[in-house]
Write a structure and sequence with these properties.
alpha+beta, binds flavin-adenine dinucleotide, four-stranded mixed beta sheet, four-stranded antiparallel beta sheet, about 400 residues
């Protein structure tokens, strides 16, 4: 039986120095309106305090705390995975606001660094790093979600421009974004993953209509996006024309890496808060609740060690089987935690006692309720649980490929 190499999870002196630097920055800058957000604005809460969080992004950028993992030549710090983990840990620990530029920093930026032309890098990377241009991801369509190769949005060359027509859906933060990276069909005769291209399309133009979709949380983080003759410069293709599938997959690999880093400590904070509620309302003496809380703690600890192990020695995207295991694990864990929190809150879980605002239309969910509802989506986006199980089945267990066209009911 193969043994896994031992991983020393303690900070080395240089890691501790970096951790101190991050803490010091956050201590000095996370004040005033930024501190007042109380760490809100994360996953499922992205419409909260948006303008303040935009200013916070610039505050981070001014001191060089955005895009840490990018190479120094593109304005990053060339930070190792360990340092990025440390930054994320301290960021979550200090209850800093949810970031507004995750898609630009975590997805498009690394994709451009690998596949972009020098002109594209010069044009698009600085405003991402400075937090002045926000991006959204135009992949999914009504008939192309898990089956992304079924994309039908098309782009046609017209002189020095591409003209884009089609519909995207579930486009997170499209209503707040300046640009969208769009997977579309540039060869009308093509099928499946051939003949696709990866275009950068400006959102603020007449040919783009964004229609927000109301979610379970009664906020609208994601949208339908209609392209009806939207235009972008012919130069704004990443990779070769017709080679968009390869570029799109590269972006997805970065998405998995980002997700691995992002969630752990906010989960820990949520579990700690839930523990405090259970102790306060007497539920902590219920043997079933106690077991469930212990189990949640054990699984979260395993999640952390597993993440650190899979990231150690990695200096790019995490490999697909590892990433699938992690995605399946954290998505399912968080959904179960939401169910446990409703159980611990008991009948009060049905009372809206959160903060009413224009943003949530007066539907004043508290943090636990919001997280419980939003967690339903975490087993869907970034590759659904079923898709992750297929990948694990085929690539880890070596099962024969799933027969096509037989999606189980
Ligand atoms: C909160 C949220 C944010 C999102 N943000 C974005 C975004 O910013 N940009 C973007 O492009 N997309 C985004 N998405 C879309 C997301 O990527 C898709 O929802 C996801 O890929 C699933 O696609 P679908 O919704 O079309 O479901 P489908 O692919 O139609 O799947 C329906 C069901 O069938 C199952 N299924 C499908 N194929 C198989 C198979 N081969 N084997 C077994 N089961 C299968 C699925 O698991 C699912 O249960 C977001 C989604 C959510 C929920």
């Amino acid at each position: 039986m193969a043994t896994l190499p031992a991983v020393d999870l303690r900070d080395r002196p240089e890691d501790q120095a970096f951790r101190d630097e991050v803490r010091c920055f956050l201590h000095e800058h996370l004040i005033g309106e930024f501190a007042e957000l109380g760490g809100r604005g994360g996953s499922g809460d992205e419409t909260f305090g948006f303008e303040v969080r935009r200013r916070w992004e610039r505050e981070l950028a001014e001191s060089g705390w955005t895009c840490l993992g990018w190479p120094v030549e593109y304005g990053g710090r060339g930070a190792s995975m360990t340092k990025q983990v440390i930054f994320n840990e301290e960021y979550a620990r200090s209850a800093a606001p949810g970031r507004v530029s995750i898609l630009g920093e975590g997805l498009l930026g690394p994709t451009l660094i690998h596949y972009g032309t020098p002109a594209q890098k010069a044009r698009f990377l600085p405003p991402i790093r400075e937090g002045t241009e926000l991006w959204c991801q135009g992949y999914s369509e009504p008939d192309a979600g898990s089956d992304l190769a079924n994309v039908k949005t098309r782009a046609v060359r017209d002189g020095g421009e591409w003209v884009v027509t089609g519909q995207k859906i579930w486009t997170s933060l499209a209503h707040q974004s300046d640009w969208c990276f769009v997977v579309c069909r540039t060869d009308p005769e093509s099928a499946r993953h051939k003949g696709l291209s990866y275009l950068l399309v400006p959102m603020n133009q007449p040919g783009v209509e964004v229609r927000p979709i109301m979610q379970l949380t009664r906020t609208s983080e994601f949208n339908e996006v209609y392209f009806d003759g939207a235009r972008t410069s012919a130069d704004n293709v990443v990779g070769d024309v017709g080679d968009g599938w390869r570029v799109a997959l590269a972006t997805l690999a970065f998405e998995r890496g980002v997700a691995l880093l992002g969630h752990q400590l906010s989960f820990r904070r949520e579990l700690d808060r839930l523990l405090a509620v259970a102790k306060g309302n007497g539920r902590a003496v219920d043997p079933v609740v106690r077991q469930a809380m212990a189990q949640a703690h054990i699984e979260l600890t395993i999640m952390r060690y597993n993440t650190l192990r899979s990231l150690s020695g990695v200096d790019g995207p995490v490999s697909p089987p590892e990433a699938s295991i992690a995605k399946l694990y954290w998505g399912s864990w968080h959904r179960r935690l939401g169910e446990l929190s409703m159980r611990i809150l008991g009948p009060s879980a049905t009372v809206l006692d959160g903060e009413a605002s224009a943003d949530n239309g007066g539907y004043a969910l508290n943090d636990f309720q919001r997280s419980f509802l939003f967690a339903r989506s975490e087993t869907i986006y970034g590759g659904s649980n079923q898709i992750q199980r297929n990948i694990i089945g085929e690539r880890v267990l070596g099962l024969p490929p799933e027969p096509k066209g037989t999606v189980p009911a």
